[in-house]
Amino acid sequence: xxxxxxxxxxxxxxxxxxxVVLGHxxxxxxxxxxxxxxxxxxxxxxxxITQHIGAYEVDVGNPxxxxxxxxQRKITFLDTPGHEAFSAMRLRGAGVADIALLVVDAxxxxxxxxxxxxxxxxxxxxxxxxxxxxxxxxxxNPEKIKGELVKIGVVVESMGGQIPSVEVSAKEKTxxxxxxxxxxxxxxxxxxxxxxxxxxxxxxxxxxxxxxKGPVATIIVEKGILNxxxxxxxxxxxxxxxxxxxxxxxxxxxxxxxxxxxxxxFESVPTVGEKFKSYKSIEEARxxxxxxxxxxxxxxxxxxxxxxxxxxxxxxxxxxxxxxxAIEGMLKNxxxxxxxxxxxxxxxxxxxxxxxxxxxxxxxxxxxxRVKIDAGVLKFLKADEQKKVRIKTFDVIYELIQEVRNSMExxxxxxxxxxxxxKLKTLLVFWAEKNRQIVGGKITEGEFKxxxxxxxxxxxxxxxxxxxxxxxxxxxxxxxxxKGDEAGxxxxxxxxxxxxxxxxxxxxxxxxGEL
Length: 515
What we know:
The protein is α+β, with helices and mostly antiparallel strands. About 25% of the residues lie in helices and about 35% in strands. It has twelve helices and 29 strands. It has a six-stranded mixed β-sheet with strand order 3-4-2-5-6-7. Strand 6 (about 130-135), helix 5 and strand 7 (about 165) form a beta-alpha-beta unit.
């Protein structure tokens, strides 16, 4: 073997695939990961967001290649908070993943979030594998799901397309080995390689502030080898690495391409989706960092309310930047034709007194995701019972979104709709006194009930209104009469009814405002 060939092998080596798991909130993404790794993430999926780590590595036997530093073939699973966060990472120029798993519940149907996930995968231009989960349920119908997917441009191999599909049961742990084999097969077709001799580079996939540890980030190495005590920097944050941990929290000395690793040592919390590079010195790294960190939040068109629209102000608090990014992405998609949603503040950490003061001043609602409420803010609110500040915390992302939607809708006035239910042609007027009359007639349309409101039409023009006080047939009280029946009505209203007038019965429904 020549020196040139040997050098090529050393510089370019095969790496493990990075797989992103996307799909509808309750179609079993987290339970699928649990089955794959036999490692409990959470007992119940909460809006697609699991732990701070955000990525997991699993061993898949010992085939000859590709090999990691430990000699075993591995797959890295990226568990993003959803397609919004996945898309946001891509917008920053991040490659994020090599393969996408689209998880669909075989016992349900394709959902709007399934379609949104498909769009995100197609924009990323990475191979897709369709995973039909919950195949153990008696109502599972994988062929129906495949047909629905065809209608939205996802044609699996069994339907004549190019996209692999696999039927699994995360609960029963069936089909998992087949899924892993398909992932490795798709990865082999991509011939995934990485330069291990160049300075380390990679991607921040999760970040947060921890009270005792300070800024914490989960990163995936894309090329090079990252070592403890290395100096790395994103566009906005710098770190002299104090410690490296694998996804289980075990200390390690080095991280290789495609490997997720927890990094301690950042001076400030980096932003999810940022790319990092390693540098020879702190001075060199600091020279690359931008001086002003941009404010986080929604785009200007959402933040600036049109003067003729109502405004709903909220303050967001989340457990980590990945959570906030996903939440903001979903809030941005709420309809704002009638009400403008304005996020005044969006930060990581527990709800505190400054949040309470801002909420009181701006009449905003405080929304927390997997955070606590500091005693200080509760004391601040209790000190003056006139302070009306609403604070709600959530563990499930979609429940949070629904709460914000409900708050926006409550600011809208209720809509009153009128529905005609019956018509009667007046044939006789028996008696009249003050604002009451007894009239007889025949119901020509629909039905009449006691208590219904009436419009009085004469020559096709409305001349007055009233209501049915009592309803009779053959001089006997009844509650309901229908088309073709002759009726006697005790009418109360603001007009004197004459023979030939048409009485139109109707109901009014009060419907809450909708976005």
